[in-house]
Design brief:
12% strand, single chain, elongated, 14 strands, alpha/beta, 6-stranded mixed β-sheet
Length: 589
């Protein structure tokens, strides 16, 4: 079926590319579709940046201008071949994105779009005030692209080049989103804490996709310069940046094909509005901005996910076929059974005047299940977050496998073999169950964005997904592997998180209320799995409110109350401790 679909798509692409030469489409419409294709390249980058990565940018038009001016200077002032100017233009754009993105992508909330707006305005005025770039008059006389001795001056010929570039961008973007690097990117927007906990470098991933989106905009700028044969600052200003963002949002943020839909709709709308509104109003002006603002508000109110899901339905997670004979991922070396894995030594954490964790200390050894129990608000989840690096300790020490991890990044802690689940299920709802679990194996792969785009990561990808499938089988969710994770019940999501943690091949697993929401049979299966992990020499630190569940499993219990350790020992001893009975189990009576 997949091969048949690819064949149909290829035939449709050939028909579309042949249409301009049929004589059916007027030259004006061919030119308009050239502009749509150029805009689609920018919108595809914005779909990856904004719709998938969660970073709103108003400044992509500046990157279009940066590449356009680069090729204009090289070809007009230095006589460089237009084709040779392409890699230089992309390199300049990538360098500019690196410099800008190194600061911008670290911003959050409303500061991020404001930051992109600021450098977009700065570059626009830079283009308009440098005399050697022609200032506001721009540069003309840019040579056309040539194939052999033939100049591509006909819009129909340029149409083929532009839309081949769009097809290439779509293929590359789809390859990226379906691979290890793409899963990391898709996790940034909806599950950043989980992404960090399993070794994904959030700042690095954001910067890489920022640069890639800028390079797509740079490709659009290079095509624009040699199609228009002149450049001026106007098309690279803030208004153009808003239009590009509008294309991505209206078409369907997060949908690669939605970028083309949005670019088509907004370009057609602008074309018609520029002709009709001055007639209706009775004077000339940039009235299309008012219309675009209204369209954006309307789209956000009625179709927050864009037009693509409305027209073609929500995307079903891809069913990834199992590949036979694929080698398993290399297992992690296990520490000696009974050796000390985790040492928490007089750790303290304050939130203002509240002491959430008060000089707490305990240890976990390889092949041991330790229960961390206490009433609500006792500081259990805070202690988990201190161990995993999600919070910084104020005092004390935390050592994992003999190395201090106090203040270490979650990625570094995960790389040493510490996996975790969360108190509230932290998954990417629109990814499949299998892909969510495969996030746990992120550190066990090496392929980056370039290998993913070129599909040179297929063997590694098969091993990662095979590991995810095996862990799903361990928790009893094999039948749900290709369902959207957001369609599962709470208890099933708990098991997805357990499978994801096991995909890391950890030596220590921190589980925060894994049995919450599970039915009796599911709890028995989970208990059996935890015993299996203990038998394999894996350490488990377990927070759980189901006393029967934790008492039947734990080798030792640590009891917290108001952030302070009040008891520690084997379950039989702890359950008789008067302080535990008073604080947690209902009192001596």
């Amino acid at each position: 079926m997949a091969a048949r679909a690819n064949l149909i798509a290829a035939l449709l692409a050939l028909v579309v590319l042949a249409l301009p030469f049929s004589g059916v489409i007027p030259a004006y419409w061919v030119t308009l579709f050239n502009y749509i294709g150029i805009a689609s390249l920018v919108a595809i980058g914005l779909v990856l940046l904004t719709g998938v990565g969660g970073m709103t940018s108003f400044g992509q038009a500046a990157f279009v201008g940066l590449a356009a001016y680069t090729t204009a200077v090289l070809t007009v002032q230095f006589g460089v071949s237009p084709w040779l100017s392409l890699p230089v233009s992309l390199a300049v754009t990538a360098l500019g994105a690196l410099l800008v993105g190194a600061v911008t992508v670290r911003l959050s909330g409303h500061f991020l779009p404001l930051g992109t707006l600021a450098w977009g305005v700065a570059l626009f005025y830079l283009f308009g005030n440098l005399s050697w770039l022609g200032a506001h008059d721009g540069m003309s006389g840019i040579p056309p692209l040539r194939i052999g001795g033939h100049a591509l001056t006909d819009g129909r010929q340029f149409f083929v080049l532009v839309w081949l570039a769009v097809v290439l961008a779509v293929v590359v973007a789809q390859n990226l989103l379906g691979a290890r690097a793409g899963r990391a990117l898709r996790a940034l927007r909806r599950s950043a804490h989980a992404a960090e906990a399993f070794g994904i470098d959030i700042a690095g991933a954001k910067l890489r996709i920022f640069i890639f989106a800028a390079m797509l905009a740079g490709l659009a700028g290079w095509l624009y310069a040699h199609f228009q044969r002149s450049v001026a600052p106007g098309p690279f200003g803030v208004n153009a940046g808003i239009e590009y963002l509008l294309m991505a949002v209206v078409g369907g943020a997060g949908r690669v094909y939605g970028a083309i839909l949005g670019a088509t709709g907004i370009t057609f709308l602008r074309d018609q509005v520029q002709d009709l509104l001055p007639v209706l109003v009775g004077s000339a002006g940039n009235y299309e901005i008012v219309v675009f603002g209204a369209v954006l508000v309307l789209a956000l109110q009625t179709a927050p996910n864009g037009l693509w899901p409305i027209l073609f339905g929500p995307p079903a997670p891809a069913k990834i076929p199992a590949r036979r004979g694929v080698a398993k991922l290399a297992p992690r070396a296990r520490p000696e059974r009974g050796s000390r894995l985790l040492e928490v030594d007089r750790v303290r954490k304050n939130f203002g005047g509240l002491v959430a964790v008060n000089d707490v200390g305990f240890e976990v050894r390889a092949g041991e299940i330790v229960g961390l129990i206490g009433p609500n608000g006792a500081g259990k989840s805070t202690t988990f977050n201190l161990i995993c690096g999600a919070l910084d300790i104020d005092q004390g020490a935390i050592r994992f496998r003999g190395e201090s991890i106090a203040g270490a990044a979650p990625q570094r802690i995960a790389a040493r073999g510490l996996g975790r689940t969360f108190q509230h299920a932290d998954i990417v709802a629109d990814m499949s169950v299998l892909e969510n679990v495969a996030l746990g194996a992120h550190l066990r792969g090496q392929a980056g964005m370039v290998r993913a785009m070129l599909r040179l990561d297929r063997d590694e990808e098969a091993r990662l997904l095979g590991e995810a499938a095996r862990q799903l089988e361990r928790v009893g969710l094999s039948a749900d592997a290709h369902k959207p994770a957001g369609s599962l019940a709470l208890g099933q999501l708990r098991l997805v998180e357990v499978a994801r943690a096991l995909c890391l091949d950890p030596v220590l697993v921190l589980m925060d209320e894994p049995a919450a929401g599970l039915r009796h049979g599911e709890k028995k299966a989970l208990a059996s799995l935890l015993r299996e992990l203990r038998a394999d020499g894996v350490g488990v630190l377990l927070v759980e409110h189901d006393m029967d569940f934790v008492m039947s499993l734990a080798d030792r219990l640590v009891v917290l109350d108001f952030g302070t350790r009040i008891a520690e020992g084997v379950p039989a001893t702890v359950r008789r401790d008067p302080r535990v009975l008073e604080a947690y189990l209902g009192g001596v009576a």
